[in-house]
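Reviewer 2 asked us to include a model.

Predict the structure of this chain.
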Amino acid sequence: MQLDHLGQDAARVVGGLEQARQQSYHGFRRRFLAAVRSAGLGDVTPHDLRAAHASWVADSHGVLVAARRLGHANASVTTRHYARAVDGRDAEVAQHLDASRAKPTRRSGTQRARKPRKAEQ
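Predicted model (structure tokens):
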């Protein structure tokens, strides 16, 4: 993805693009290209920003949240078009699963309150 190097600071790319009134295509394009230049980016489109946002939201909050933010009625649209794998995430998930598996299992409150069975004594 072209915007991965921006991380969560992609807002500086679109800062100043918000306006209260409707704007023309050429006016938006001019302001968008100026914002891209000031952020030091190369060939970036509004779709690239949408895709980067969708991937970040899907990774941090889940695909359903990303689908809602993008206005999709079905999360499959989001996964098919926008949600992309984030480098290094698979190793992070595997490490988390290993760590949670290594923890001793804790008995629930119901299990602790029960009298021990004869086989357990």
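The mean pLDDT is 77. The radius of gyration is 23 Å. We have added this to the supplementary material.
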